[in-house]
Amino acid sequence: MKINVTVWNEYVHERTEEAIGQVYPHGLHTAIAEGLAMDDELEIRTATLDQPEQGLPQSVLDTTDVLFWWGHKAHDQVDDELVERIARRVRDGMGIVVLHSGHYSKVFRRLMGTGCRSKWWELDDKERIFTVLPGHPIAAGIPESFTLPVEETYCEHFDIPTPDELVFLSWFSGGGVLRSGCCYHYGNGKIFYFQPGHEAYPTYYDATIRQILRNAAHWAAPNGNPPMTYGQHDRFEN
Amino acid sequence: MKINVTVWNEYVHERTEEAIGQVYPHGLHTAIAEGLAMDDELEIRTATLDQPEQGLPQSVLDTTDVLFWWGHKAHDQVDDELVERIARRVRDGMGIVVLHSGHYSKVFRRLMGTGCRSKWWELDDKERIFTVLPGHPIAAGIPESFTLPVEETYCEHFDIPTPDELVFLSWFSGGGVLRSGCCYHYGNGKIFYFQPGHEAYPTYYDATIRQILRNAAHWAAPNGNPPMTYGQHDRFEN
Amino acid sequence: MKINVTVWNEYVHERTEEAIGQVYPHGLHTAIAEGLAMDDELEIRTATLDQPEQGLPQSVLDTTDVLFWWGHKAHDQVDDELVERIARRVRDGMGIVVLHSGHYSKVFRRLMGTGCRSKWWELDDKERIFTVLPGHPIAAGIPESFTLPVEETYCEHFDIPTPDELVFLSWFSGGGVLRSGCCYHYGNGKIFYFQPGHEAYPTYYDATIRQILRNAAHWAAPNGNPPMTYGQHDRFEN
Amino acid sequence: MKINVTVWNEYVHERTEEAIGQVYPHGLHTAIAEGLAMDDELEIRTATLDQPEQGLPQSVLDTTDVLFWWGHKAHDQVDDELVERIARRVRDGMGIVVLHSGHYSKVFRRLMGTGCRSKWWELDDKERIFTVLPGHPIAAGIPESFTLPVEETYCEHFDIPTPDELVFLSWFSGGGVLRSGCCYHYGNGKIFYFQPGHEAYPTYYDATIRQILRNAAHWAAPNGNPPMTYGQHDRFEN
Fold first, then answer.
1. I want to staple B170 with a disulfide (CB 3.0 to 4.6 A). Which of A26, A205, B180, D131 is the partner?
2. How far is the C-alpha of B131 from the C-alpha of B170, rounded, in Å?
3. Is D65 contained in some domain?
4. What confidence tens digit (pLDDT) does each residue in B155-210 have?
């Protein structure tokens, strides 16, 4: 059965900064979607902030199994009400993969409860990503470590809750480390945060990064369970 | 060095329902505070919703090491801005111990990010509390298991993030289980959720419960570290 | 691609105690295997202690993706060297599902490092199993809670390491609770411990239990990664 | 009340390699003990492999609240029976702080159950240690990050169970990262693994390292609970 993936992108940098537009001429979402589309089991749509209902009307959310989220400049423009609708969908089973600067999006902060900030610098550091949980589905086919020749550095302290599963750790040439691949359960849903993916660098064309994103789509897909029920209840029969 | 504890209570049930007022004639906060005051290292204040600034002006928060929180009927009346001030203080090191129906308070839901609901029934169930982490500071002096003759049942599924440390599990005679003693790190601060403490029952006079609350005050106390710093940073010298 | 499952059973109770033999006339392993075989993606073999090399020559281990383990009376008869071979295979990617009294098997204690004991009684308690992580692959298709009319009670404290993922919690009518469905990563491999399955009760014919075991086989299957490498290494190129 | 600490060292490098002897003329244990002794609440003894009963007769173990362990060359010489006695003491409440190359000691591997290996190189890398859990007792007084000018590099993948609490992460100039400060509960006892401390470098004279070790002694100290009881039990009264 196909997994319905929606790749959401604010789509601002690529259209307002020429250098970024040259790296991602059709938008970050298109590059991300291309990498995902290499997997026949994934059915891909994209959505952007400038579309009606910010690209995510309820009908789209309701038919999305896994939502990918890239945002940065326009975090504040995302409707609070959309954030709540996404959180409910995650609680009820939808997966969400939050990418790079999405760590400071309204939706990630809403899901995590914490500040979600880190130290950062944008100085063309090399990043080396280490697999911490080699048996995890998101690590399938990923080497013990691999490098990205340039990435924006995000560095601890990273103000997130303790990950349920820490899949990747990153080393940066400028002296930083980060818990860069973090899994969380959230009600019936699952959340994966993955740090690489700065808009100025061709990270989303990297074959290993693309493999991780495909793996993440599979891992985050709903398991089909209905939402849990809460509230007043009778005693169970003993 | 003394630990400054503030016990906050909405203080509604005890003044509006005669049966509750008979169990806690001076309010739940007073019974909780009495149990804490048996420990000379704890310096106790109480605060209630009906006080100016809902009992927690910034000057009180700033001098509170550990905040105990009991709320139920009046969750909605707590100012959103107070909730944010509390969350910031926890991030910066203040401990918070959230009690019983406080699981659905604005502040706990804000800190957790999740819905924080459970199943529940109020049918005079017996509760048996099991120690899962016997070496944990909050379990010091607590037996392998102990019972409360009557408690309100809270039952899984409990919609919380995976606890960093699960200290207690509860069994209820009506057929339920709950992760009833849950620890979380939150920035520099620490959070402990503890389920027993229904307003209609004399739980806060129980010696073992009181020991757990004293232990929790010590565990949740700040370790003195300054808040972490975030944002743009230079490379480290390598 | 098929997942190769080997169901290992000491196969002692069923042949030495008439009452047990009536519940599982072809052995516990056969009942377990029947439940697994309902899934076309699982390729099932069984193995028993009385076979050459205790049923698990290296050639069998090397072609096993997921090993199910049921043992009780004969824990001590399992060769230490076999235990080490199993541990190496788990480290290198094989999944293992340890069932019921297997908690005290040599292999589970070897993998966990802890004592792995609990309290227990065999008094025809009812067991009610609650799903704690409803979005987990092992919980797919499993209700919020379900009951087994009779099971042996295992009760906290359960001397295991903190589970990486706690999928199920159990309530017992005789007053106990247990972390009854526990996941661990172990090198490239994955471990699932699941408590129900006393030899005197028809637990392995239960449809929900069988679904959980099928789910566990999928979850525990290797992700195909080669074993990690350790030891002296050059600096990475920076 | 004083915490009784025993610092155990195999004490081999310092007496067989002149360069090491110059860094630690009275042995690593003495330097470690000196750092701990700055805290009046810690009562310090040392023990070495060459002493009767390998320095740890049962009478010493029974009066030790927290055991520090430094070993490397002589792992194999440690009696298996001593390892079992230590594991039992940890299960029953004794804390253990395993240092540096102690990751591959018999006792750490016994407690963890896993292989406990990592990649490593000894090329005078700089190490930068980041605090991941700033509110943790072991992080009290420790900055957001600090450096050791030279350390032996231990690099992921580190074959350990998922830490219950990951307090520190390390960056190495040669391109590695490590989960370098890891906490575990183990029955009534607590375990802290801390990676810095190569015999050729003056790490144990570093003020921040010494603070961490003092903090670890406090964190790992027993909470006074008696050992948990296991085995056949009556139903609880309901």
1. B180
2. 9
3. yes
4. 999 999 999 999 999 999 999 999 999 999 999 999 999 999 999 999 999 999 99
In this complex, the residue of B128, B189, B223 whose CB is nearest that of residue D139 is B223
Q: How many domains does chain A have?
A: 1
Closest CA to B56 of B89, B31, B23, B32: B89
**CA–CA distance, D50 with B189 (Å, rounded to integer):** 45
User: Which residues of chain B are within 8 Å of residue D185 when distances are taken between CB atoms?
Assistant: 133, 135-136, 165
How far apart, in whole angstroms, are the C-alpha atoms of residue D162 and residue C163?
9
How far is the C-alpha of A10 from the C-alpha of A31, rounded, in Å?
A: 14
Angle at alpha carbon of residue C11, lines to C8 and C16, rounded to 5°: 175
And the tokens for C235? 């600096």
Cβ–Cβ gap B131/C166 under 8 Å: no
In a domain, B203, yes or no: yes
C-beta of residue D113 within 8 angstroms of C-beta of residue C108? no
| CATH number of the domain residue C7 falls in | 3.40.50.880
Q: Does D235 touch chain C (CB under 8 A)?
A: yes
What average pLDDT does the structure give for chain C? 98
A contact test, residue of B156, B193, B228 with most A CBs within 10 A: B228
ipTM of the complex: 0.97
Pairwise CA distance, residues B115 & C134, whole Å: 14
- Read off the tokens for C76: 């001590």
Q: Which domain holds residue C185?
A: 3-113+181-220
Residues of C in Cβ contact (< 8 Å) with B162: 133, 165-166
Rounded to whole angstroms, how far apart are CA atoms A128 and A131?
A: 10
Residue in D133, D149, D237 with CA at minimum distance from that of residue D201: D149
| Whole-angstrom distance, CA of residue C103 vs CA of residue C119 | 12
Nearest residue in D to B95, CA atom? D135
Q: D223 pairs with which residues across the strands? A: none
Distance CA D48, CA D41 (A): 23
Residue C42's Cβ-count burial label (10 Å; 0-12, 13-18, 19+) is: buried
In a domain, A59, yes or no: yes
The pTM of the full predicted model, rounded to 2 decimals, is 0.98
End-to-end CA distance of chain B: 39
Q: Do A135 and C93 touch (CB under 8 A)?
A: yes
Strand segments (E) across A12-137: 42-48, 66-70, 95-99, 119-131
Chains with at least 3 CB pairs less than 8 angstroms from chain A: B, C, D
